[in-house]
Write a structure and sequence with these properties.
The longest helix is centred in the middle third of the chain and has 17 residues, at 118-134. Helix 3 packs parallel to helix 4, helix 4 runs parallel beside helix 5 (118-134) and helix 10 packs parallel to helix 11 (252-262). The protein is α/β, with parallel strands linked by helices. The protein is globular and about 65 Å long. Strand 4 (110-112), helix 5 and strand 5 form a beta-alpha-beta unit. It has two domains: 20-262, TIM Barrel (Alpha-Beta Barrel), CATH 3.20.20; 265-332, no CATH class. The protein has an eight-stranded parallel beta barrel, surrounded by five helices. The protein has a two-stranded antiparallel ribbon with strand order 9-10. It has helices spanning 3-8, 27-40, 59-70, 92-102, 118-134, 150-154, 156-161, 172-177, 197-212, 228-242, 252-262, 266-281, 296-311, 318-324, 328-332; strands at residues 20-24, 44-49, 80-83, 110-112, 143-147, 165-170, 216-219, 246-249, 287-289, 292-294.
């Protein structure tokens, strides 16, 4: 049995996705993002944006561009998704039909903006599945849902429970705007976004809903694109204080600071390696290190540290690599 099977005892493990979700709207930025992904590897996802990326009157042409790029050989990691128009838009069904139908096997996920209820999301998923099947996709196409309306926040727990939903992402700017001045503009940026009670409540409810169902909570955008220290600080606070495991990027310079902030420190990796090595020796029974007791509850935590480090491309020590690839059945036989 693999350590993950021992620690989770047949239960579904929490999903793991790259920590950075980079949005790109124009052809120039899409191609630049794809080139960077080729250079760095699948350490971050790219979301092609139809909602805000398509110029008025050129929605169909934009969808055609998205399909061409998704099917291009430069999409070698298959870690590119698309944000379609919202369901109230006249372009929503066309986006889904053309993009999902035309690139079903290459899409990593579909992002649904401005849903207002779990019923909205369920209807959208039904349409997505219809066109994914027509496009020849047999595997379930993951769906990411932007939580940016009162109704979506109310239904966050139910939305996260939908099997096809992989990620809930906080749309802070639309959420604040939906309060029509009751939340001040400074709550859309730091430090207000981490202090205003209504914004803090929204973030916590999204994170709690995701972790209850093993899904990915994605933190909102940082609009400061020149000062990467602000981006790094936002990402660190989102992870350490709120429990987010992923975050938006809207500029290539934001990608590396976000990845770094969500990547476990090397000292944590070494600690996790030592603890899990002793756990295996004890056949996953309780152990003690440095005067602290460890059992399967803490083993699950430290196992997730190694998984997140591996996903982020961190150079793992040999002992950690051995743990990730460990097979206790093979060893015992």
């Amino acid at each position: 049995m693999h350590p993950s099977e021992v620690l989770f005892q047949g239960k579904r493990q929490p999903l793991l996705l790259p920590a950075c979700d980079h949005y790109a709207g124009s052809e120039k930025l899409m191609r630049k993002s794809m080139a960077l992904q080729q250079e760095l590897g699948p350490l971050f996802d790219i979301t092609f944006d139809c909602e805000d990326g398509a110029s008025a009157g050129e929605e169909l042409e934009h969808a055609q561009l998205v399909v061409r790029l998704l099917n291009d050989e430069s999409n070698c990691h298959n870690r590119i998704g698309v944000r379609v128009h919202d369901q109230s838009s006249e372009f929503f069904e066309g986006d889904v039909a053309f993009i999902v139908g035309g690139a079903a096997s290459k899409l990593a996920y579909v992002v649904l903006p401005k849903a207002d209820s779990v019923e909205d999301v369920a209807r959208a998923i039904e349409l997505i599945n219809k066109h994914a099947a027509k496009g020849g996709r047999t595997a379930m196409l993951p769906v990411h849902v932007l939580i940016e309306t009162h109704g979506a926040l109310r239904d966050a727990y139910a939305i996260a429970a939908l099997p096809q939903v992989e990620c809930l992402s906080f749309g802070i700017m639309d959420f604040v705007s939906a309060h029509y001045g009751a939340i001040p503009a400074n709550a859309m940026r730091t430090p207000g976004q981490f202090q205003h009670p209504l914004v803090v409540r929204a973030k916590l409810e999204i994170v709690a809903a995701c972790h209850a169902h093993g899904k990915i909570p994605s933190h909102n955008v940082t609009t400061e694109i020149k000062d990467t220290a602000v981006v790094a600080n936002d990402a660190q606070r989102a992870a350490a204080e709120f429990g987010f495991t992923r975050m938006w990027s809207i500029h290539p310079d934001q990608i590396k600071p976000i990845i770094k902030a969500f990547t476990p420190r090397l000292s944590e990796v070494h600690e996790a390696t030592n603890i899990l090595t002793e756990a295996i020796k004890a056949n996953w029974g309780p152990t003690a290190q440095n005067g602290r007791l460890h059992d399967r509850a803490s083993y699950r935590y430290y196992w997730s540290v190694l998984q997140r480090a591996k996903l982020a491309g961190l150079a793992l020590p040999d002992a950690a690599i051995a743990l990730v690839n460990h097979d206790t059945h093979t060893e015992s036989t």
